[in-house]
Structures are given as C-alpha cells and as structure tokens.
Amino acid sequence: MTYTNDTYIFLHDIHFYAFHGISKQERTVGNDFTIDICLECDIHKACSTDNINDTVSYADVYKVLKEEMAIPSNLLEHVCQKIVDRLFEKFDKIEKIDIRLAKRNPPMNADIADAGVKMTCKRD
Length: 124
Known about the structure:
By secondary structure, this protein is α+β, with helices and mostly antiparallel strands. It has helices at residues 24-29, 44-49, 58-69, 76-90, and strands at residues 8-18, 31-41, 94-104, 114-122.
C-alpha cells in the first residue's frame, strides 16, 4: 500500500469555558470558546504497528489545549501562538498545525455566532 504524505490528526469542535478578552467583563465572567485543530504528522508507522508511540496522541494534544486555555490572555492570537509553540515543543512528529479558536457570542453588540482567529504554522 502506498500512502500520500498528507496524514493528519485532528480534534474538532472542542469546547472550553475560559477568561480571554480585553474587557474586564470578559476576564471576570468568561465566555464559551471552541477550537478546531489539525496536525499534519507522519502516522504511517502507527498504521502498521498499532502503537501509540508511533503517532501523536490526541488525548495528549487535548491536555495541552486545556492547560493553555486555562491561562487568561487578552488576545486569541496570543492563545493560539502559545498552543502552537507548546505542541511543536512537545511533539516532534508534528510538521504543521492549523488551528481555529473562536469566542462564541462575543460581546460586540452584534448578531454573530462567534469570532476568532485561524492560524497555520509550519515547523522551522
């Protein structure tokens, strides 16, 4: 069997309650956030070995997300960068990260479901 080079681990529609934002209300009351993350990594060996050590554990990825979301920040851009940095540091198999972080119903006096940031970062 031949694989393409494009193999991914993803976590979709992860929900967190956190205290990110620039207003005092956001930092005090908090808000609902969602994360979608896609990690480009070589999972070919794990396909054969059935061994967690040959891939990236999405449970361990979730743990990083949860820890970083628990640290209040003013900007979602900052939160995303901290997540990306930690994931690249912790998992050498990750080559590229696509992350979307959204604040649900942001306090901006608009009829809007969510607003946020999306980043794509490649390992140097």
